[in-house]
Hints:
The protein is mostly helical and 50 residues long. The chain has 1 helix and no strands. The relative contact order is 0.07.
Amino acid sequence: MQEFLQQDLSSILLSISVLLGWFGISFVFLRILAILIKKILEAIFKNPNK
Length: 50
């Protein structure tokens, strides 16, 4: 029983770390996407002003 709990705990920790990794990757991806959209919009709106 104790071995089962220990294995279960390690698998839970692994799952949590994988989820946190995916959250981190998605956060970075969304941040890069937001910066790209901002630069594109700035380029679009700066051109007519010239």
